[in-house]
Structure formats: structure tokens, C-alpha cells
Amino acid sequence: MLAKTLNRRAALGLYGGALTLALAGGALWVVEAAGRSLAEGDAYAPWRLWDDPGARGTPLALVAAGALAANPHNTQPWLFRVGETQIDVLADLSRHLGAVDAFVRELHLGLGCAIENMALAAAPNGLDVAVEIVDGSLLALAERARPVAAARLHLTRRPLSAADALYRAIPVRHTNRYPYDRGRPVPADWLAFAHGAAEDGARVVLFDDGAARRAFDAAVVEATEAIIADAEMIGDSDRWFRNSPAAVEAHRDGPTLEAAGLSHLTLAYDRLFPVSPQASRAAWLGQVRNSQLPSAPLTGLIAVSDRYDRRGAIAAGRLWQRLHLAATAAGAAMQPLNQPIEMIDRERSTARGDAWARRIAALAGADGQATFAFRVGMPTSAAPPSPRRRLADVVAT
Fold first, then answer.
1. 2-29 tens-digit pLDDT
2. Does a structural domain hold residue 182?
3. 200 with 251, same domain?
4. If DSSP codes are grouped into helix, strand and coil, which group holds residue 379?
5. CA-CA distance, 102 to 19, in Å (whole number)?
6. How many structural domains does the chain have?
7. Which of 96, 85, 93 is nearest to 127 (CA)?
8. What gap in Å lies between CA 344 and CA 220, rounded to an integer?
9. For the whole prediction, is pTM greater than 0.70?
10. pLDDT tens per residue across span 263-275
11. DSSP codes, 327-370
12. Do 79 and 394 touch, CB atoms closer than 8 A?
């Protein structure tokens, strides 16, 4: 019984209410000497409490690691059903991105990221994990009102292992949307890791310069423009944005001003004065075109044999999480740039043809379909954490 090793209710409390009294139930907004604000509050507590001694050596320790994984628009689209010898990972389809993710492909990428974190957390907590994926096509998941099984993690006891670099990177891995330092090369160790990385058919394609890199950059910029011009897509994206401390604490999810990669002056202005949706979208396009792409020494894709295969999507997510953790351990920064793949989904869901699919296929190569796009480089600023839901909110009963 799980209760033999950990009082379940007490453990869940560690990941939600432990800081409530100290912070009077609200968010404390601290301004650094450099002028950039950092958000600290109950919504950020899971980053600090994920490895709490009260959960070590139990299945809940794996869930606490999984809940810190990368995921689309910080929707955190997962639920976990926890037992002594297994953890079921459920796709919470009610947290999908609508027109941005018409086939819940990105949602499943996020589940793969969570599974990878959980697998990495197993050995340091005295557990072995065997991952069983629920096969099928994402095209068949039309009903979005209830959670559906995505994977089962089978757990067995083993001697404790020392924490490795990827496990230690879990609480410090954050998406970095700031400009990168184009003059500093990506660490050779990470490059070697990326070139050899693969997961159940998912593979990495990197671009540094030349025609392929120019084509990649142009696709990201034009896809961003297309999303902004599509009222349904940009509306579904905007509804997740949390632009105030109160919204962050109320929802504990979604993109925030803090993590948008803004300069400290722009961030301060945006907090003091309301910004129109049109101005916000123009700023996003400007960041992508004038800062994020030009400053990145490397960009890349993750390709799979079929982007709408559930197993492939989860494998790609596991690969992205491992790449990002390895970059974090090496001192590098990463950011998804998935707009072109989102446009592939949009074309397919609206029967508008396959121009985007053909365009990106030329970059992915003949033996795969791109399902994830990203940039990597050396950071000029540290990325802040994103808000996270309480463990009590993601553990299914």
C-alpha cells in the first residue's frame, strides 16, 4: 500500500499549501537590482518542493518530477493515477489548445516530456520503470471532454542510484525566450548528445547556417504571421495567457509576462499599463523575427515517421525533454518554435491543403515528418520558472 510509505494527503499538501502561510496566500513580486521582476508565490512552489524528503522513494516523487516537464503553452495537460507498483499517465484532453493543436499532437508531446522526467526520477528514488504506451492515432481522439489513458509506468524496487546530470537539471530547466549570445558556440558535449539522440524512432535535425537554416527561419516567421492573422488560432492561444499576479495564482498555468523574454523595462511598462492584444501579438512577431531567430546559433527539428501516431508523439516529447535537460546541464538555453508545425495541423484540420506540410518536409528529410521545432544557444539572461499546478490537482483519484 502506498500509505505504508507516505501519508498521501500530507504529501499532496507539501506541493500546494506549504508556502501559503509564509506568503499569506498570495504572490510576492520581487524586483532584482537589475530591474527584472521575479515571481515567487504558491504557484511556483512545485519547483522548490519537487524533491521534498517526504516523498522520496515513493511513486509520488516521480509524479512531482513529471509535473515540472515542458509542455505546450504551459497547459500541463496531464493527470496521474498513482499506485504502489504503477502510475497511469492520463491525457487531460479538456486542457487542449483548440485550433492551435487541432489533433492534440502537442498535448501528447507534453505527456512525453512528463514521462521522460518520471523515468529519470525513478532510479534516484529506488525504482525501476518500464513504460507502456497506449498505441493509436491522434486523429481518432475527437472527444475532448474526459481524460484518456496515454501510458502506464510499471514500477519495481531497486537499490538507490546517484542522481545524474539530467535528473539534477529537472528543477532548473526553463524555456528561455530571451535573446541568445550568437557569438558563443553551443557546448560540444551537447552537440554530440543531440547528434546521437533518438527515442523510439524520433530523431533530431539541426541547422546552423546556409539555405536550410534560412528556410527554417523564414518558415517560423511566416507561420507566426499566419497564426496572428487567424482569429480562431490566436484567440485559442490568448485565452491561456496570464498577465497579472492574481491570474497566475488563480490558474497556476499558461504563459506569463515574466517568462515572455521581455527586457526589464518593457516588462515593467507592461505591468503598469494595459497592453492591447494587437500590440502584444506584434511584439511576439517582432521577438521571433528580430531577436529569437537571429540570436540563435542553432535551430532544429524533431522528426518522427508519422506525426499523428500517439507513440511517435510521446517519443518526440521524451526526446525534447532529454535534449532540454542536457542543454540546461551544459549551461545552454532552448526554446520551442513550433509555429510551422501548428500550421501543418491547421491546414489539415480545415482542409486547406498541404502547403505547410510540403514546405517543412523539405527540411525534415525524406524519412520523417517534423513534429517539433526549436532553437538552442547560450543565454544572455536566466529564464524564470512557469507557474505549476499543485500535486493535488494533477493526481487523479
1. 333 334 433 444 444 332 222 323 333 3
2. no
3. yes
4. strand
5. 37
6. 2
7. 85
8. 12
9. yes
10. 888 888 888 887 8
11. HHHTT-EEEE--HHHHHHHHHHHTT--SHHHHHHHHHH-TT-EE
12. yes
